[in-house]
Amino acid sequence: MAGHSKWHNIKHRKAAVDAKRGKMWSKCAKAIMVAAKNGGPDPSANITLRYAIDEARYANMPRDTIERAIKKGSGELGAQNFETVRYEGYGPKGVAIIVDGLTDNRTRTAADLRLILGNYGGNLGASGCVSFLFTSKGLIYIPAEAAGEEALMDIAIAAGAEDVTPPDAQAGADAVWTIATSPTAFHAVKQSIEQAGLPVAEARIDMLPSTMVTLTAQDARTLIELIDALEDNDDVQKVYTNFEVPDSELAALDD
Fold first, then answer.
1. For residue 119, what are the contacts with CB-CB under 8 A and spacing of at least 6?
2. Mean pLDDT of 93-101
3. Which residues have CB under 8 Å from 99's CB, separation 6+?
4. Taking the CB of residue 96, how many other CB atoms lie within 10 A of it?
5. Where are the alpha helices (DSSP H) in 74-212?
6. Strands 243-244 and 213-214, how do they pair?
7. Mean pLDDT, rounded, of the chain
8. How far apart are CA 162 and CA 126, in angstroms?
């Protein structure tokens, strides 16, 4: 979990930049539309839509933009047809990569991803080639200063959480408690934390790797550039990888 927490801090800083470019809102809107189309426009009866709305709120997406995406998905403002896709492959140094997307043209998306991976020394693989290295987990992030360890653990474990990881002391203002849950317990744990009055900085169902590939700062920089390129693609929603950077290399990576 510690390696994931550090990588989360990198993603968190980059996500702020993405939001300024409007990329994050676009991806959130598409996820809301698909969820509303498949399960209906009522988030109380459509848990996938509820999760998509939560992620949009964490990205500071305006309420009227969220509501417009729900209406588009439910057909009130005209239909747009997207389907869920998952692609698997490898980056340089054998790093495993999973890409989840929403697309209206599978052929275009696959070609785009194959080109992006190839540009960075990676390749697109067959379905299942790396997914066995990952496990689906719910992750809930609480600002470090918002809760004490004993109180937070009591709330989280009682609600069904599997693990609570302390904040990374080197993360500074980005430091967070990381609560891990099974996908089925995710909503109950998140709800218990919110009912206790604790702020949730971010919460999502994620794919956590079971084995990690350790990279130097130079190699990690190439992987981050690859991930940036993948996430810049309009059809890409999320990218999961299994690389980590040793503490001794983190300073060089920040530079």
1. 226, 229
2. 96
3. 86, 87, 88, 89, 113, 230, 236, 238, 239, 240
4. 23
5. 106-119, 149-159, 186-195
6. parallel
7. 86
8. 32
Tell me what pLDDT residue 88 has: 97
The rounded distance, in Å, linking the Cα atoms of 57 and 52 is 9
In angstroms, the CA 150 to CA 61 distance is 33
Residues 6+ apart with CB under 8 A from 156: 140, 164, 179, 189, 192, 193
Cα–Cα distances in angstroms (integers) from residue 222 to residues 128, 218, 219, in the given order: 24, 7, 5
Verdict on whether the full-model pTM lies above 0.90: no
Contact 59, 15 (CB under 8 A): yes
178 CB-near residues (< 8 Å, 6+ apart): 1, 4, 5, 8, 139, 140, 141, 164, 165
- CA–chain centroid gap for 49, Å, is 16
